[in-house]
Amino acid sequence: MTGIDAPTHPFDTAIAVEYTDAHRLAGHTCPDYANMVGPFGGVTAAALLRAVERHPERVGDPLSLTVNYAGPIADGPFEITARPVRTNRTNQHWQLELTQDGAVTTTATAVFGIRRDTWSDLELSMPSVPGPDAEDVVPQIFPDFIAWGRNYDLRFVAGAVPDVEPTAEIPENPDSVSTLWLRDTPVRPLDFASLTAMSDAFYPRVFLRRGRYLPAGTISLTVYFHATPEELAAQGTEYLLGRARANRFGHGHFDQIAHLWGHDGTLLATSHQLVYFKG
Q: Does residue 195 contact residue 269 with C-beta atoms inside 8 Å?
């Protein structure tokens, strides 16, 4: 059995997994990271990533993670299976399942790899916005039923969460773009697991477009990790800057794309989602 270190931060408690045999791990949901239905999807994705990170056969660092939320996760224990399906010279492919009482609730694939020194360039620049301590950049307060939101310091530059009970005077928004500073609270040094969860910390874009809360949930989430371990370490506990938007709404679904930059302007991750909604 491969043990785990005693968690020292609520986030580490929420994603704690322990190997019970070569490819099987035990975990438990955490009420601090509860969402409207089940746990916060970002913390589930982070637990799946952590399962691969702790596997003795793991090679390299995360390059991508795709999580498909097949069904609701109930409060309580869960089990993860994590198997490497192929290891190449510079990348390694994984298949994962999260189950409860023998039923699959979540499936995932991950790609880990060894980053090489090559030519590089950045076409997408960090937006120029006021800093997190600017007077008009106000921390977001979430309603009580979104417990996971209390574990993040979210400071919106634009596109804040609409009021829970909007009035007739609150119009629909002309676009779905949100720009915000974010970090863990209490503060925690950034790593791949916390970057994974933050990639899902953008509320559903349909809330912003319609100006109110609607039933919605992520069906599939993919995170592309651009950062190296050294680039993550350089962020420390500083705020990241995130920007999210959708491209099309219709027929009960919409897409959502997000980018996360470090405080030094380094593009750390890109995420894509497919989200269902009603209304």
A: yes
Of 182, 187, 204, the residue nearest 261 (C-alpha): 182
Residue 127 has a pLDDT of 97
What pTM does this model have? 0.94
For residues 244 and 106, give the distance between their C-alpha atoms in angstroms, rounded to a whole number. 24
User: How does the average pLDDT of the chain come out, rounded?
Assistant: 93
Max intra-chain CA distance, the chain: 59
Q: Are 241 and 179 in contact (CB under 8 A)?
A: yes
- Cα distance between residue 218 and residue 201, in whole Å: 11
Measure CA of the first residue to CA of the last residue in the chain; give whole Å: 48
CB 40 within 8 A of CB 34: yes
The Cα–Cα gap between 244 and 233 comes to: 24
Helix (H) or strand (E) holding 44, with range, is helix 41-53
Give the span between the Cα atoms of 181 and 143, in whole angstroms.
19
> Tokens 């800057």 — which residue?
241
Tokens 């209304």 correspond to what residue? 279
> Per residue in 211-239, pLDDT tens?
988 999 999 999 999 999 999 999 999 99
Average pLDDT over residues 51-58: 97
pLDDT at 169: 53
What pLDDT, on the 0 to 100 scale, is given for residue 37?
A: 84
